[in-house]
Specification:
This protein is an alpha+beta fold. The protein is about 25% helix and about 20% strand. The protein has 2 helices and 6 strands; from the N terminus they run E-E-E-E-H-E-E-H. A hairpin with a 6-residue loop joins strand 5 and strand 6 (about 85-90). Bound molecules: zinc ion. The site of zinc ion has 6 residues, from loops.
Length: about 130
């Protein structure tokens, strides 16, 4: 595994066919310094470049404002020159739940909780037709 010195993408040592994705300039329009502050982003399209810029910003600032719900307004244009496209990037964080089967040990629940669960189970059983 190595890293492309141009686009910083990981490349398998067996992959001799690496070609860097297109280069984009991405910047915050509200700073009014436009392309002075622009970052060079390699991505397959302008929307992916805006997304990658937003992710990098959130991670580097550690504020996670975009993922926290504050939209980002960005300008993107091909690094080689071309029309500017405006993007509004929305982020969101998604709760993740994961169930893992465990060894059930009634002793760890305590007698009171175990009695409550047994009572609830008995009630549920009694309600069955
Ligand atoms: Zn590359």
């Amino acid at each position: 595994m190595s890293i492309c010195e141009n686009c910083r993408e990981y490349i398998s040592d067996y992959d001799k066919s690496h070609r860097c994705p297109p280069a984009w300039l991405v910047w915050w329009p509200e700073t009014e310094r436009f392309e002075e502050d622009a970052q060079l982003i390699f991505a397959s399209n302008d929307a992916d470049a805006a997304t990658a810029f937003s992710q990098r910003y959130d991670w580097n600032s550690a504020s996670f404002s975009i993922v926290g719900g504050q939209d980002a307004w960005l300008c993107v244009r091909p690094a080689a020159g071309g029309p500017i496209t405006w993007f509004r990037v929305e982020g969101r964080s998604e709760p993740v739940y994961e169930a893992k089967a465990i060894q059930f040990r009634p002793a760890s629940l305590g007698k009171k909780r175990l009695a409550e669960m047994a009572a609830a189970a008995a009630k549920h059983t009694a309600e069955q037709p």
